TrEMBL record:
Gene3D superfamilies: Tetratricopeptide repeat domain. The keyword Phosphoprotein applies. It is found in: Cell membrane; Cytoplasm. Residues 440-470 are annotated as: Disordered. This is G-protein-signaling modulator 2. GO terms for molecular function: G-protein alpha-subunit binding; GDP-dissociation inhibitor activity. It comes from the Eukaryota.
Length: 526
């Protein structure tokens, strides 16, 4: 009976290694039905089942089996098994947004690893600790703030994450584990980015890039280039950022990742807009538009149209600008994006004024804006819209509607239509950049939005905390906040069935060679 149970479990392990977690679950559950008197084998099966369900995103089931594993390891006095079960529980609780419980589990993992002088276990526990605090910080981030300007609760969590990542990095360097160093450098870079430590973020991501190249890991290399581009944007080094986004684009094409290719084109389009190279910006935004259409990403298509409208406005191509503005409006209506529709309608109205098609702002639109406005403690009217590819966003340029209205009326009283049509559009567009200035934060200069605008990226779904969605109010800021680039940057390789764990060996019969089933860690690795 035990041989049959073990064989079923080994087949389940093999299937999970091959990526067929659902089939693996079937074999593990069959092994449990057959049963075994060897509690260590049963513990390993529980651990593997928890990991498989984690990969299948059935976190309730994952939690159930990791708890069974924890109970069993404590019963049989298996300290190493208890440490690993605690780590797996911590990772699962983190994903469920139960951060305080996750911290308790991570602490138990770290305590046991320290007591038995398990350096590898200590490193894993510290890394998982960092992930928990990183996820906690992101789950309560107020998306109206820019990196470094989050509420103190968020900053405290992110600082703790950085401390744990630094402690982990110290150990994995001592162990000579370059792969682990790369993962930690990536996550540490993301954490420093959110803290507003952009120079430190650059240093960490450069290390991540170096190690990714050592391993020939093009996906990690692509992430590192993208993250470096993000940091250089906030340092105001736009040309450097553009070079990193170009490498991101090249790698995305090599990896045949169309969604990331679209993101890179969008990032490059916005970066060249910042550099006022509007022709090149249009080229990249058109590439983004084509991919969004290929992927049937209507919201991404709307964002591309929005950006193209802005760039054509800057060049005085009003006919093309209004074409894209109207297309943006059409998509917002189709997707039911109410706040985006309000923004789009006002954009069309602005362009109509420039073209002389209309000299009045849509009063009903303004009244709707005001209606939405006072959700934010009486702040001035602001508009926002939803986005697709949330974790792939860079920035959006949005007119301040009230200033645009004032500019329009002023300019119309001072210029004739011919001169207006030719020269005013660039002023109209570039005026959207004038509210930005460099702000000293420590030794780093960060390009800031000084118009009290809010980022409108969707609120992270990690964690149980619920806040008013910024999609309900808030003008789209100068940056479509780059912190959301990091929301899914972890790229966790959780529950790796190939991680070294305690190896359980049983003879499958007299004279037969020993066969083993691994009890592995559900690790969160970048």
């Amino acid at each position: 009976m035990e041989v049959s149970c073990l064989e079923l479990a080994l087949e389940g392990e093999r299937l999970c290694k091959a990526g067929d977690y659902r089939a693996g679950v079937s074999f593990f559950e069959a092994a449990i039905q057959v049963g075994t008197e060897d509690l260590q084998v049963l513990s390993a099966i529980y651990s593997q089942l928890g990991n498989a369900y984690f990969h299948l995103h059935d976190y309730a089931k994952a939690l159930e089996f990791h708890r069974h594993d924890l109970t069993l390891t404590r019963t049989i006095g298996d300290l190493l098994g208890e440490a690993k079960a605690s780590g797996n529980l911590g990772n699962t609780l983190k994903v469920l947004g139960r951060f305080e419980e996750a911290v308790v589990c991570c602490q138990r993992h770290l305590d046991i690893a320290s007591d038995i002088s398990d350096k590898v276990g200590q490193a894993r526990a510290l890394y998982n600790f960092g992930n928990v605090y990183h996820a906690k910080g992101k789950s309560i981030c107020w998306s109206g703030a820019e990196p470094g300007d989050f509420p103190e609760e968020v900053m405290t969590a992110l600082r703790k994450a950085a401390e744990y990542y630094e402690a982990n990095l110290s150990i994995v360097k001592e162990l000579g584990d370059r792969a682990a160093q790369g993962r930690t450098c990536g996550n540490l870079g993301n954490t420093h980015y959110l803290l507003g430590n952009f120079r430190k973020a650059v240093a960490s991501h450069e290390q991540r890039l170096l190690i990714a190249k050592e391993f020939g890991d093009r996906a990690a290399e692509r992430r590192a280039y993208c993250n470096l581009g993000n940091a250089y944007i906030f340092l105001g080094e736009f040309e450097v950022a553009a070079e990193h986004y170009k490498r991101t684009l090249q790698l995305a094409r090599q990896l045949k990742d169309r969604a990331v290719e679209a993101q890179a084109c969008y990032s490059l389009g916005n970066t060249y807009t910042l550099l006022q190279d509007y022709e090149r910006a249009i080229d990249y935004h058109l590439k983004h538009l084509i991919i969004a259409q290929d992927l049937n990403d209507r919201i991404g298509e709307g964002r591309a149209c929005w950006s193209l409208g802005n760039a054509h406005t800057a060049l005085g191509n009003h006919d093309q600008a209004i074409h894209f503005a109207e297309k943006h409006l059409e998509i917002c209506r189709e997707t039911g994006d109410r706040s985006g529709e309000l923004t789009a309608r006002m954009n069309v109205s602005d362009l109509q004024m420039v073209l002389g098609l209309s000299y009045t702002t849509n009063n009903s639109t303004l009244s709707e804006v005001k209606e939405m406005d006072y959700n934010l403690n009486g702040a001035r009217p602001r508009i926002s819209r939803r986005h697709s590819m949330e974790n792939l966003e860079l920035m959006n340029l949005t007119p301040d509607k009230m200033n645009a209205q004032k500019w329009s009326s002023d300019i119309l009283t001072k210029q004739s239509k011919p001169s207006l049509a030719k020269s005013s559009s660039k002023l109209f567009f570039v005026s959207r950049l004038r509210g930005k200035k460099y702000k000293t934060s420590g030794s780093s200069k960060v390009l800031q939005d000084t118009s009290n605008t809010l980022d409108t990226t969707q609120t992270p779904t990690q964690g149980p905390q619920k806040r008013l969605s910024p999609d309900m109010f808030g003008d789209e800021g100068f940056f479509d906040l780059l912190s959301r680039f990091q929301s899914n940057r972890m790229d966790d390789q959780r529950c790796s069935v190939q991680n070294k764990g305690s190896r359980l060996s049983l003879n499958s019969g007299p004279g037969s060679p020993p066969r083993a089933i691994r009890k592995c860690m559900c690790t969160c690795l970048r």
